[in-house]
Specification:
The protein has 282 residues and is of the alpha/beta class. It folds into two domains: 42 residues, no CATH class; 162 residues, Rossmann fold, CATH 3.40.50. The strands form four sheets. It has a five-stranded parallel β-sheet with strand order 4-7-10-3-11, with helices on both faces. It is 25% helix and 21% strand. The protein has seven helices and 13 strands. Strand 5 and strand 6 form a beta hairpin. The structure holds adenosine-5'-diphosphate and magnesium ion (MG). The site of adenosine-5'-diphosphate (ADP) has 14 residues, from helix 2. One of its GO terms (biological process) is microtubule-based movement.
């Protein structure tokens, strides 16, 4: 390739999923404000240094790892483009943490976010009441957030609601009704249809099992999917270092730090199946 004067599109190290495109000043800022050539850079570059204050609660810590930085960015693009998004992945992959921090801190102020958590006992009426209570009347029969804003509802554990006699999940059928027909009927004023505008949904769910049910495809077809995978080995290393208050800055340096992990608690395996040391701190 070199002989023919061709260059690799992506940097040599890692996989294509590790990189994102800097669009050369079109939307991403450049150093001098002048347009530049687009280039690929690692998701973890250009991040502010993250430091864990020993005073913080564990639950407040959100360590930036390749997976959640990337998922949060994709989530942001989708929401800004008015798509409905669903994040799927096994429990403990950081869906709740990543989405709620992106929604509460990482979006343009045009987006107003509201969190709902579904449980086995959530009913369709409750869901409708909560959503209705957050929206105001725009004009006759039409409801929405204040003008110029967009309301985003984050529904955690979407597939938790119990199945009714016929095998459907009423809260989910209600959401499907909203997504198919942009609204629902008023329960007090029988016969009046309430149209909901400027409303977006972000949902999270784990695989069926343990109280979670398979979700109907009639609902799923409305969503863009973002997958959350089990943490990569490198992410775990970053994680333990941060949680122990170590000062690590760049992901590229982490590999070099691997042999330095001093407190040995157990032996694990990395992505290649080699035996390595993993500290179990949390
Ligand atoms: N990037 C992260 N930084 C810090 N803690 C994390 C991170 N990702 C996940 N966790 C922790 O892992 C646990 C599970 O995360 P959670 O978001 O509840 O997963 P999910 O919603 O996918 O089941 C939580 O206690 C959370 O604090
Ligand atoms: Mg969760």
């Amino acid at each position: 390739m070199n002989e023919n004067g061709m260059k690799l599109l992506f940097p040599k190290e890692g996989r294509v999923y590790d990189y994102t495109l800097h669009d050369g000043g079109f939307t991403d800022p450049t150093e001098d404000g002048e347009p530049a050539n687009p280039y690929w850079f690692n998701w973890m570059d250009n991040l502010d240094d993250y430091e864990v204050d020993p005073e913080w609660q564990y639950a407040d810590i959100e360590v930036p790892t390749l997976d959640n930085v990337r998922s949060a960015a994709i989530l942001g693009y989708k929401i800004t483009n008015y798509n409905h998004v669903i994040c799927v992945g096994p429990t403990g992959t950081g869906k709740t943490v990543t989405i709620s921090s992106k929604l509460s801190r990482g979006l343009h102020k045009k987006f107003i976010c509201e969190f709902l958590v579904f449980s086995a006992r959530t009913s369709a009426n409750q869901t409708q009441d909560v959503i209705d209570s957050k929206l105001e009347r725009r004009r006759r029969g039409v409801f929405g957030p204040p003008p110029t804003k967009r309301q985003v509802f984050f529904i955690d554990d979407l597939n938790m609601p119990a199945l009714e006699v016929y095998g459907a999940q009423p809260p989910i059928e209600l959401l499907r009704q909203f997504m198919d027909f942009s609204g629902w009927y008023d329960r007090t004023n029988i016969g009046e249809f309430k149209m909901l505008i400027d409303v977006g949904m972000v949902a999270a769910m784990g695989p069926p099992g343990g109280g979670r049910n398979p979700v109907t495809m009639r609902l799923m077809r409305h969503f863009h999917y973002v997958s959350f995978t089990e943490m990569e080995y490198n992410s775990k290393v970053i994680f333990f270092y941060y949680l122990r208050g170590r000062d690590i800055k760049r992901v590229a340096e982490h590999a070099a730090l691997l042999p330095l992990i001093p407190a040995v608690d157990s032996i694990g395996r990395n992505d290649d199946g080699d035996e390595v040391v993993v500290s179990n701190y949390i």
